[in-house]
Amino acid sequence: MAEPSEQQKQERSKALAAEAKSQKTQLKHSKRQVAMVFDLNKCLGCQTCVIACKTLWTRDEGMDYMWWATVNTQPGKGTPRDWEKMGGGFRDEEPQSGTLPTKRDFGEAWDFNYEEVFFGGKGNSVHLQPSGDPDWGPNWDEDQGGGQYPNSFYFYLPRICNHCTEPACLEACPRNAIYKREEDGIVLISQERCKGYRFCIEACPYKKIYFNHVSQVSQKCIFCYPRVEKGVAPACARQCPGRLRFVGFLDDESGPIHKLVKQYQVALPLHPERGTQPNVYYIPPISPPRFDAEGNIDESKPRIPPEYLKYLFGEPVEQALATLKTEMAKTKAGGKSELLDMLIVYEWKSLFGPFTRDPTEIEPRKA
Amino acid sequence: MRCTKVTVSRDHLLDPTAAEWSSVEGEALKLDATPLANQPSEYIKASRDQKQIGKVRNLMVQAVHTGTDILFRLSWEDANKNVEITDNDVFPDGCGILMPLGPGDPPPIDEMGSKDAPVNAWFWRADSKDSPHNTIARGLGTTQYSKECAIQARSLWGEGAWAVVFARPLAVPQQKDETIQLAPGTTVRVGFAVWEGSNGERAGVKSFSKEWRELTLDA
Between A306-313 and A317-332, two packed helices, what is the crossing angle to 10 degrees? Predict the structure, then answer.
């Protein structure tokens, strides 16, 4: 058989690339986009969202080390350890190389001596403890934070899959196993199409995809789509005791998501420079003031370095914080603020946009 | 490439160490890296270096048939034995045989078939405990395992080399649309691929025989 010429090969490569691109365009198309806003000023690091997700979704075999929802102390290494240094995402629309976090980086599921302590008659002599000598876990550096006393600081950063508008995972999969749902933009990994190649994990700049070593496929947060389909908010949001997880459609002008993200522009995506256009947004944390060398309060300087917040949320964080402060001054002076009322969440259900149904009202799906 | 007719039993030849294999004429194939430009993922194209792909460059292929069954023995030097997926960043070794599923001219071998011209791959991976897969592909990134699989495999790693034997009945009439039907005295097109786990090779990132070859089965 005649070998094709260099030019023929290049033309064929171009044609194949164009075909692949058109498939990707279809896979990431959605008519609407659900989103979440997390108010970092209200997160108390209680991990209730984490456990709500764990008990609902990641109890099957191979999922023991998975935490689709996490809450980590900032500044900190996060989950998986040092995920911000693992690459991925896009720069000038070009995919960026990423690395694969190991099981240890995620924090392996520890085995505890439950048997011995609870049922082995050693309840008074042996402590409940993990076996081995773990030196990392999904929330290992809790409350360490940054800064020097008396100006030390920290805040909590809850994370889930960002259900990006330009998902790096979707772009990376050579099998077109990852897609956005047309009706709500939720990013899913087809468990039938996935062959466990893990390019998606490399490419995700947020490192929010896990490899299941038993079923040998990649798995991640599904934005509780079976609940969303029935008008029920995702479990992490509904279970949050801090009333800080807003849910809704980005284009719903009457809902809090649109107001916080688009109208007031106080909710910002995490690491926007990674180029994936996340659909999880954060109200940045307002700092307490610093103490000066004499121990007096110096109102002119925030405790959380503005550079650190810019590192996380980009330049617009300055304006977002300024807006929040202006609104706070307004209420302090006896005025009213629609924005602050929205963030206070007087009415619990106002968090959830169109997803206010009680899950107990719904007939469970037959297995 | 010739597929010699032998009188040795299939079960005996399934053993990669069976003495009879040493007298079967084989073909030493030079393998190439798959072309990065054709990978169906912009991420793979951007994150890989063409020069780093395709660690295994030499493959010995032997093929025989017994009149009812066909056997391939693939062997290659590999100092790194990668058998288990022990962590997220660990990949197993693998190898595969590719043949067109239908009549007519298949597309170039590195395109893994097309919508109208599917290809059939026999795929072995070191972690699959010698349970190979029968797969069908209709273009890059489309391979699917069939539910049924008439292929058997036995593998052995020793002295820095893999030897993998695939065996299958020549004809598998109950899987006409899923696996190639073979017969003595005919010629089919065939290709081969090897994945080196220690080099992170999986999916289309592998080394392969870059053109279709003809395999003639003795009458």
Answer: 120
